[in-house]
């Protein structure tokens, strides 16, 4: 990463999503046609579905701007040259509201893991392995901020999935990045079950 906390990997450069690159955060997370249109902004899991639903487009943008002013930043951006091409939402699990429901996402033990809960690749750059590289960038970012055990909650399928449903990532991507399955979940995205995977120190 440019000014700390993330690596350069296979031609991609990673950096935290801070306010000085907020335009790039908007490019990855904001609405694409009208600035007043609704978009997730990677807040639904972080805040919880109920709270996120109360925010209009302006509120969501302002909430993400606020998060980008905090340490640690709310995620990692990937760059190919000067162009932003990817985003990974990553935070301590306790800060991700939707992961607190242990009946859906079981807690494995008393360890406080960091969680990778959203991966996005910019349109026009998909199917180039960027999502897989984003995992490495997110892991290094988490470890630079004290995270030892890293969790993810990918789709447990080898079948083709509509791009709109792939934000949790796929099991195969995380296996390639050194993660192991540790539990099933009660969560489904696009009808596909999700699992809990972990990457341990070392």
UniProtKB/TrEMBL annotation:
<keyword id="KW-0808">Transferase</keyword>
<dbReference type="Pfam" id="PF00583">
    <property type="entry name" value="Acetyltransf_1"/>
</dbReference>
<protein>
    <submittedName>
        <fullName>Acetyltransferase (GNAT) family protein</fullName>
    </submittedName>
</protein>
<dbReference type="InterPro" id="IPR016181">
    <property type="entry name" value="Acyl_CoA_acyltransferase"/>
</dbReference>
<feature type="domain" description="N-acetyltransferase">
    <location>
        <begin position="12"/>
        <end position="202"/>
    </location>
</feature>
<dbReference type="InterPro" id="IPR000182">
    <property type="entry name" value="GNAT_dom"/>
</dbReference>
<dbReference type="GO" id="GO:0016747">
    <property type="term" value="F:acyltransferase activity, transferring groups other than amino-acyl groups"/>
</dbReference>
